[in-house]
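Appendix B, Record 12. Input sequence as logged:
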Amino acid sequence: MVNDLVSTGPPESISLLNIIAEAARNPDTNVASLQALLQMQREVIADQSKAEFNRDYAALQAKLPRIKKDGTVEYAADKNKPDGPKKKAFNYAKWESIDTIIRPLLLEFGFSLTFDTTPRAADGGGLVVTGTLLHRGGHSKSASIPLALENAGGKNNVQGMGSSFSYGKRYTTIMLLNIVFEGQDDDGYNAGLRFITDDKKQEIIKLLQETGADTLAYLRHLGVESLDQIEHKNVTAAINALVAKKKKMETKKNEGSTV
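Logged structural output:
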């Protein structure tokens, strides 16, 4: 009977459902066999959902344009005179500009974005922002970035939480959708300075995730307010600092496992 269902039934998942229904009606079917069939059905559905996700993600990527960096970050020309003349440090894409472009494409291909936060206990607290790309077929993909509360400019804790969340939302979206910005191939020559390349930026983001490092504290240590602002000459040192932290964590973990 099972062979007949497999050979003459509808698509694979439907055939499995028929087999499971038939097995459930059979008094000779043991619980272990039924559980194995149910697990097989779950795996089939998961594989189909992942395949649909990958297909629609590829189609989305083909239509996703490069996004303009329409925001500007300025700093005091003289650090000792914060209220004095300003100079441009770098451009960035505002969240509302990113959302305006990606939202119609997400809807077209059956995707949606959700964001969540969890407390970050290490290195003085803060939060971990997690973005999740959901697909109508059921499969999803997530990316996280650890952040301390942003307290620049005299922000209180509530304002700092909002600022950090906004930063994390922007960066997890960039990671999940592999967003490319206009002029990114130049890697930002500004006033004779060359800035970090996109592949190195992604490498740093991955290391930040793996080490659970405080992203904002890390940026302050480098003397910048965004990964985009890291000068090319400082990229190797910036990466090495995180690699050293990761190795230290792995060594500590290995020592703990041998006790």
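The first strand starts at residue 71 and ends at 76.
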